[in-house]
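Support request from a user on the community tier.

User writes: "When I paste my structure tokens into the form, the page sometimes reloads and wipes my input. The last time it worked, I copied everything first. Here is what I submitted, just in case something in the input itself triggers the reload:"
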């Protein structure tokens, strides 16, 4: 059996393979065994409501009616949001929505289109 590397986040030795990914069961960190894995360790992985990984420039769809804070309008279910940017924080998607303007969304309320 081949020796798997320790988790780069928590140094756990109980890592396992899942396809081409290595996964740590203790902290949940996922990474690949490529040479550029050191650069991707600092980036936060953002997933949508279905568990799909989101990246900058993706198009997402709103899955729930969302009240817009400071306004009486509502962002309707099914609204497509193009060219998203991922940011740190509680609201991890920064975007511009037609008819609403610039706004931040939580990834748990969108799905990848």
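"...and here is what came back when it finally went through:"
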């Amino acid at each position: 059996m081949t020796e798997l590397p320790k988790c780069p986040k928590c140094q756990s030795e109980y890592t396992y393979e899942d396809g081409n990914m290595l996964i740590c069961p203790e902290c949940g960190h996922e990474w690949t065994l490529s040479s550029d894995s050191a650069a991707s360790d600092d980036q936060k992985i953002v997933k949508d409501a279905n568990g799909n990984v989101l990246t900058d420039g993706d198009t997402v769809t709103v899955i729930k009616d969302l009240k817009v804070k400071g306004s009486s309008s509502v962002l309707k279910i099914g609204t497509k949001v193009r060219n998203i940017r991922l940011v740190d924080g509680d609201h991890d998607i920064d975007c511009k929505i037609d008819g609403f303007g610039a706004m931040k969304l939580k990834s748990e309320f969108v799905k990848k289109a």
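Agent notes: The reload is a front-end session timeout and is unrelated to the input. The radius of gyration is 18 Å. The chain has two domains: 1-38, 59-112. Escalated to web team.
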